[in-house]
Amino acid sequence: MTLEVSYKAELVGVFGHPVAENPTIVMQEAAFLELGLPWRYLTIEVLPADLGTAMAGLRAFNMRGINLTIPHKVAVLQYLDDVAPDAQLMGAVNTVRLEGGRLIGENTDGKGFLRSLIEDGKCDPAGKRVMLLGAGGAARAITVELALAGVTDLLVTNRSAERGQILVDLLNNKTPVKATFHHWQGPFAVPEGIDILVNATSIGLYPEVNARPDLDYDSISAGMIVCDVIPNPPQTPFLREAAGRGATVLDGLGMLVYQGAIGIKMWTGQDAPVEVMHQALAQAFNL
Ligand code: NDP
Questions:
Q1: Starting at the edge strand that comes first in sequence, how are the strands of the sheet with 65-68 ordered?
Q2: N or C: which end of the chain has fewer CB within 10 A?
Q3: pLDDT-flagged residues of the chain (< 70)
Q4: CATH number, domain at 65?
């Protein structure tokens, strides 16, 4: 009689460059341990010129999926068999799953933001007016998901006018939202009637922990929900200013955990233990 033993792990991970400081492994491995799944999450350095070979390797190793981070989120599209409609709109994929030999691309960044807004912020974005700082990858993912979730007005502000206008044109042409652009050239007031304010720039990210977006912070009011994408440190000067004016604040650590949890659900079919993942990251960030 033979014992049923398997030493084989199911493999997922992240391709990036540089990738050594990407903390996703911490929360995903904590989740697999908590769920009792024999899965491993690998942090893999992949140079831009090697992405095609790396995607072929993913198939060869029968990996269950992969996350993509800088600089691969757009370039990976050419290697996929199918891309989810929202990720197609964003033009970027951060999560791939291998299903029946097909590579399917998704984007969980905006979905993670949305889940944090709904579950932690207790806010249904439908019918709301949103102002967003930034027009990069995170801003793109967040605005597309907000538009698809029924936000009526989106005011995008960005330092580079060209990048900002491209995002606003995309939103107006491809989603039902009414988007407008404000060129960010100095401190400005948040207009009256804004319900949700989001910092989707990299201002405040470790080690620049004292940096904050150039805003008239007195224009933030107590009824607003103010969100930051910066996961480390989660308590940014931007959020501290907003909390000081009585606004409800949501940090980027929540978004990071939820986007990873959505990835786990896509890969394993199981609900991820978000509390355990949050704690694992907080410990890794010495919070
Ligand atoms: P990008 O490089 O694509 O975009 C960066 C954005 O920040 C651009 O809009 C850029 O403006 C703006 N920006 C940077 N520095 C300044 C500055 N000094 N003044 C004004 N604007 C500035 O990066 P991503 O969108 O991919 O990432 C942005 C942040 O989001 C990162 O900190 C990342 O860690 C975080 N993130 C968090 C996630 C989470 O789950 N919590 C998920 C994904 C990202 P311009 O166009 O003018 O250069």
A1: 39-45, 10-16, 65-68, 95-99, 102-106, 82-83
A2: N
A3: 1-3
A4: 3.40.50.10860
Q: Whose CA is nearest to atom 7 of ligand 1?
A: 201
pLDDT the model gives residue 206? 87
Tell me, what's the pLDDT at 5? 87
At 2 the pLDDT is: 62
230 CA → ligand 1 middle, Å? 9
How far, in Å, is the centroid of ligand 1 from the Cα of 37? 34
* Number of compact structural domains in the chain: 2
pLDDT at 4: 82
The reported pLDDT for the residue numbered 148 is 96
Contact between 54 and 11 under an 8 Å Cβ cutoff? The reply is no
Single out the residue of 117, 194, 112, 187 nearest to residue 154, CA to CA: 194
Determine, yes or no, domain membership for 265.
yes
Gap from CA of 133 to ligand 1 centroid (Å): 9
Kindly state if the Cβ of 230 falls inside 6 Å of ligand 1.
Answer: yes
Cβ of 259 closer than 6 Å to ligand 1, yes or no, is yes
Residue 16 lies in a domain: yes
Closest CA to 178 of 146, 135, 141: 146
Instruction: Name the closest-CA residue to atom 32, ligand 1.
Output: 202
pLDDT tens-place string over residues 73-95: 999 999 999 999 999 999 999 99
Residue 128 and residue 229 share a domain: yes
Check if 256 has its Cβ closer than 6 Å to any atom of ligand 1: yes
Its sign, for the CA torsion 117, 121, 122, 126, is negative
CB 176 within 8 A of CB 205: no
For position 287, what pLDDT does the model report? 87
Looking at the fold, whether 64 and 100 belong to one and the same domain comes out as yes
pLDDT for 113 equals 98
- Domain of residue 265, residue span: 10-107+254-284
Is ligand 1 within 6 A of the CB of residue 137?
Answer: yes
Distance (angstroms) between ligand 1 centre and the Cα of 224 equals: 22
